[in-house]
């Protein structure tokens, strides 16, 4: 394919992408395929001879789309959102064309420099303490990782290096292996599985701190475990606080935890993968109070800030590191900061704030629908865009409800476990109508979306009702 | 930005991308900017209000392009190639629109399944042993990683788990920490820095095996170190063989090393990040002989197989792992296999082979230019697309030559150290004329490129000559 054909095919693809996203709600949100469906639809080997683009293009609808879970459908309420915006897609096209591998400044100065400045933009939007900013001669700074999993691992490894160095300064005779064998890291019992995995990868002992009835780690809970562990000769060195847990969007109490970590010389990393984006709104910024005690902070603009995956931002307080290649696992890196630059400029801070607020508003609206129905209960505080709810009654009842909801294929939800209870998670995910709303605040996009929400609830209601009938007669 | 505006802006961007790549050789390959250049060109904070797309678009040329190292310029001969093709860019647009996060089968069945089948396509193209293929009930399979760094780390961690399990089966009393403290992993002294970093991340002892005069690890060299280490109570468990080293594209002798690793129960991982793509040509496939002894194999289609970054393929012999999320560091993943699918179908195996052969041919041509000039010497066997060369004489002389070459900004090269000598690396990188050549084999694209090569050599020649004069009179 030469440049001339790319001009033609690229424009067709732009239209295909626009069509896909404009009409996504007509597609079934969750696919009907069975595991292994795809292999039989395509040849077993790559073709010897080149095929025509028409043949490849045709196969998007024949082979791919039947097996896609449509994350950007307005009927998708599963997991947490993943971002998808037109400005980010335009930036990604440019990123692909430049196709540089920014593993050092010289490998592409613009790639390294825009990333540094964009992480400062992000830090300022979140009102991070000065220490987290690079500036022209700052003591901190940030870098884009692929995912929060990588960010947690990097923070854990940085903390491991720091504590080993610190201990060896006082005890030059103690080997690194010996010190590492005594280390212990902590996180909430609600923390994402990737935190535990980071410990496994780094070969480090990791313990979970029990949470209170709001699913939040409190200072006294950490203090208790620290004392027990110190008494047995272990060396606490790392605490991963979560702001906005995956199951219920709960917040660890970092204003209590931070001073303890600082006093005990424990690296405090804050994982705000989902919730972090909301901190750009003044009314949600207090949720980040205590950040001044943290050593590193991570959140995913690719979740809720309209920057397409992958774009996970980590900021550090003080870095002794010089080159970006010491800040991450992979050596090579794409020019991902272009996405942040395009999105932030095309939406503006106000547009991004409006987007967050709209999602939170929709969650609150769904919450009130649930509360208005006596058969349901809300399972955790609704703080941002996630509503955890269930039918009053057994786990079995709720498992059946979820199965019916997902089998009906009209909307898509995933569950969680909260204090032993099977709970349904309703996460506001789709941007589909959001961009229009941001751009044309006078339209009735919000109203449209709200009425969609009633449909969703109605759908759950019908499934629930038919189930309860079945249940009572069985 | 709504879908209607995206249709317009997307098509403009397609044209911008096509223009950029069609005219890339008119841009200076390496930028003139000084560190910190970008910060002063843009505001210190994200804008409050949304900006117009025109303003953002204008800034691509004002802010970004002056700081770009143009990896796809035909004057770029630095590092190793990174792929950039039109079919891959089209697939990436589709990937962005679908925007799924494939962390499990249910999260997007098509994403998981196409990746599995594409890794089988790759494996078959390379004629990997059956054990590396997933098939419908295979014992192996592959997964896409971001970079070879991640692949090496994953292989090392898999090997670490395996040896710990194996030892604990015989000695249930030995703790994991104790076992890990005795483990030792190996690689070539020519191995990429990421191999050493993988050891640091995993908290594992790592040693470098000395290479022979071809910069290749031989069986006896490994055997010697193994015996020494076993004698001191260490437990060898992992060897990372490199096929196509970064400095000189040397090949470890895996036909000698493999049987040793198998006999000693050492996990052999093969890192063929750059060279792996060439193994799709029957004439280069013998370089992979010995693969039958390996436990895992990695190469980067994003280097030399026309699939844009990031796309690093790792294949395993036997996997006890069920979900893709256990095969990698990050949990989330983009729909990267679309790029492989588009590229392999649009080029066909023959087109991809022609592309590899053309690059190797160009390297051979450059080699003969160097050999024809008595002042130069070739520093390592030219096997694929990399030529290591230098002026006969001191390191200082060659450092000055490289500085002059890069300061002249006409072409871009990077150096390496080989056996204490400062050496210039000439890597054939650009696809710029390749795609045309593949698509229209009757054109004179090759001739064009060859004449460009003479220009490059002429450029080096002139710089070298003026230097030698200066040198002899000083």
UniProtKB/TrEMBL annotation, chains A, B:
It is an enzyme of class 4 (lyase). Pfam families: Pyridoxal_deC (PF00282). Its cofactor is pyridoxal 5'-phosphate. InterPro entries: Aromatic_deC, PyrdxlP-dep_de-COase, PyrdxlP-dep_Trfase, PyrdxlP-dep_Trfase_major, PyrdxlP-dep_Trfase_small. One of its GO terms (molecular function) is aromatic-L-amino-acid decarboxylase activity. The modification N6-(pyridoxal phosphate)lysine is found at residue 303. Keywords: Catecholamine biosynthesis, Decarboxylase, Lyase, Pyridoxal phosphate. Pathway: Catecholamine biosynthesis; dopamine biosynthesis; dopamine from L-tyrosine: step 2/2. The keyword Lyase applies. Its EC number is 4.1.1.28. GO terms for biological process: amino acid metabolic process; carboxylic acid metabolic process; catecholamine biosynthetic process; serotonin biosynthetic process. One of its GO terms (cellular component) is cytoplasm. Belongs to the group II decarboxylase family. This is Aromatic-L-amino-acid decarboxylase.
